[in-house]
Specification:
The structure is a single chain. The protein has 259 residues and is of the alpha+beta class. The protein has a single domain, classed as Urate Oxidase. It contains 6 helices and 9 strands, in the order E-E-H-H-E-E-E-H-E-H-E-H-H-E-E. Strands 1, 2, 3, 4, 5, 6, 7, 8 and 9 form a 9-stranded antiparallel beta sheet that branches. It is elongated.
Length: 259
């Protein structure tokens, strides 16, 4: 049958990224405790298209994905998949993106009651002629308590939920769970899916003892990532959803530890 995509194009306009977007696909993920978890991911896959080619072969993206779905994914598998896309489509560069919700069973701090916490995760990878560049992003909810409110109030202090996110490049393996723990440790206190009254008392008092501005959260997270030899580059942010203001507080830091 005629291969229309394979025809030549005389407009002399190269395309940076062309491919398939919003592919809803199951992913089997290896977990830190040795088990595995199934997630439903939104996946985007692209290649660079040179100016002389009319089109790319969209079905080949899904062929590569189907060939790799039989085994649980680990983050370090994503560059292999991205490189396979590049080779299958005979491209100079390929891109792979997967966004999904990851669940971690988390016990309450006093009673030990367990519940599933959900975290936003994103894998991004670019493969070209010289390298495969992989970035893992994780966003976690947490609690922040305002140091100023605690200082000036006769009793109590206002607190709020915050969303802390880190996108990291690593040399050496890092579990999703590892990055989640680093994000949560930077806040006034983590949040939980299930809390009984003894747990609520504990969390409230611990957050009160550990007040943090959004600036404190982002600086403490930067220090933690600076001390982790696996992390070579990071972009981090924290957004605090203010409880007594009509606006949110926000801070971000980007660092390349190789420079």
């Amino acid at each position: 049958m005629p291969d229309v995509q394979g025809n030549a194009d005389d407009r002399k306009v190269a395309i940076d990224r062309v491919g398939v977007k919003e592919v809803v696909y199951p992913m089997r993920l290896a977990t830190r405790d040795g088990s595995e978890q199934t997630a439903v991911a939104n996946i985007n896959m692209y290649v660079a298209l040179p100016q002389e080619k009319k089109g790319t072969h969209m079905s080949r993206f899904l062929e590569v994905l189907n060939e790799h779905q039989c085994s649980p994914f680990r983050p370090e598998d994503i560059p292999t998949i991205t490189l396979a896309i590049k080779e299958r489509l005979n491209a100079s560069e390929a891109h792979f993106e997967a966004s999904f919700t990851y669940f971690i069973e988390k016990p309450a701090p006093v009673t030990g009651q367990t519940g599933l916490m959900n975290y936003e995760v994103r894998f991004e990878c670019t493969a070209n002629e010289t390298e495969e560049d992989f970035v893992m992003s994780v966003a976690a909810p947490a609690t922040s308590l305002c140091p100023c409110s605690k200082e000036i109030s006769e009793y109590g202090a206002h607190n709020q939920r915050c969303r802390i996110e880190a996108a990291v490049r690593t040399e050496g393996f890092m579990w999703i769970e590892d990055l989640v723990e680093q994000l949560e440790s930077a806040a006034s206190h983590p949040v939980y899916a299930v809390l009984k009254r003894p747990d609520e008392k504990y969390v409230t008092e611990k957050a009160y003892e550990n007040p943090k501005f959004v600036e404190d959260i982002i600086r403490d997270l930067a220090i933690t990532l600076n001390q982790d030899d696996r992390v070579v580059q990071y972009a981090i942010s924290s957004e605090n959803f203010e409880s007594i203001h009509s606006h949110n507080a926000y801070a971000e830091i980007e660092r390349d530890k190789r420079q």
